[in-house]
Amino acid sequence: MPVSKAQQKAQNKWIAKAYDRINLTVPKGKKDTIQAHAEAQGESVNGFINRAIDNQISQDRRKGPQEAVESTEGQGVVSLPSEREKTQEMAQNGVIAKED
Questions:
Q1: H-run or E-run covering 15
Q2: Dist CA 82 CA 34 (whole Å)
Q3: pTM for the structure as a whole
Q4: Cβ neighbours of residue 73 closer than 8 Å, sequence gap 6 or more
Q5: I need a labelling partner for 11 at 20 to 30 A (CA). Which of 40, 74, 75, 88 fits?
């Protein structure tokens, strides 16, 4: 059954009141990777991104503020643990140069 315009308007009003929006930009092709991973985990892309952010915040809090800042691999970039671990492993194996 289609949703009425009044229902859509009420829902959009509630969403605007209850949630903040963040516009996320990723390199071409990464969106498909994120969607596939989220589906494989049985969650939405939004749910997966929120979980990744929560995990990173939790990890950073355990390290302490200065250590978390020093361990950031790229300014403005949030790396998921699996990506970071893969990059570190590749650097250790000499596949890529380590960043300072």
A1: helix 5-18
A2: 12
A3: 0.57
A4: 79, 84, 87, 99
A5: 40
